[in-house]
Amino acid sequence: MGFFGTQFQVDKKVGVISGASQGLGLALAKQLFAKGASLIIISRSETKLKNAKKQILSCTKVHEDQFVEYLAADLIDYQAASKIIPLLDRLGVDKPDFLFCCAGAAHPQYFLNMTNKDLDFGMDTNYKTCVNLVELLAKRMIDTTPPEDGGILSDLKITAGIGNNRPIRHIALFSSEVAFYNFLGYAEYGPAKAAIKAFGDSIRHELKPYCVKVHVVFPGNFESEGYEVENRLKPAACKDIEGSSKPISVDRCAELVIKGIDHGELYIHTDLIGWVLNSFSLGFNPRNWGLFQVIVALVGAIVGGLIDFFHQVLIQGYFRKEGGFIRNNNIKQDENKSD
Ligand SMILES: NC(=O)c1ccc[n+]([C@@H]2O[C@H](COP(=O)([O-])OP(=O)(O)OC[C@H]3O[C@@H](n4cnc5c(N)ncnc54)[C@H](OP(=O)(O)O)[C@@H]3O)[C@@H](O)[C@H]2O)c1
Fold it and tell me: What transmembrane ranges does the database entry give (predicted)?
């Protein structure tokens, strides 16, 4: 609960969660259902969604009329994603109370071994899945009723999670700590997660007067099916830069995300390293323990270059040890190149 009380009312609310057939999306769905929310979950695989629905419904219901519905759609495809609109109409959901864009995946490897398809995969799976869904639902979620008291007071109240005669709705976009510091191995993933941060910053400004609060989540490592795949693919040099941080459990990660929204945080971190990396690139970012962040930002300004230099030395070591980074001695050409 935040300074102004609970800022994320879940009981009897309806939410849409993408990427909820497994991993963090599913963990969030279970916890939100157990708090009284009805849910529409989205991913590509109907088999996984059916199984996820069963798992969510096995959590104790708070109300008899709580429901879980699913939409099997590849969210990269706008037409497929648009099917969320008739589904909401059929369910009689005028305005979803929250939207969590959790679909995403990281397939790290050396850039020189990536094809244009790998690069597209990163941007499409992480950025496009998110933007398509927000474009479809944000217009439906906004509240155009004039506030009881206009002006700066109303603005401050929305910031504090109080909408007066208007309920606050929430959009949470799932980025990553690499949005603050990207490094070798994440050329297909990091740019998409940085784009999500930038997208969130822009729509946060625009949607707030309409009582829609936009949060961007920057999770650190957590255990999930996706994390397992990512770790299997990760080059050794990439693992080394990342360090030996132990992933937290997916349930703990979901708890921290919900707590962050409840506290009114606009940038949500799930471990200390994420908060430190955010502080190192503080700039115009929304603050979270702002005074401490300014101090850490000063430290970052001094040691950031040194850390990057150290990583460069480490990468040189791998370059020598592995005899270069190209795996197939044949750099694949960008298939879309026009000349
Ligand atoms: N795990 C970590 O350590 C970590 C760290 C930082 C950030 N993150 C981010 O946190 C989010 C959740 O991660 P996770 O580890 O829980 O992922 P995950 O286990 O791989 O789950 C990803 C979910 O996204 C769905 N999905 C993938 N592509 C899709 C598409 N084109 N259209 C619709 N749904 C799609 C998948 O279901 P289908 O296969 O059925 O489509 C699945 O439900 C991701 O955005 C990830 O990038 C993860």
Answer: 289-310
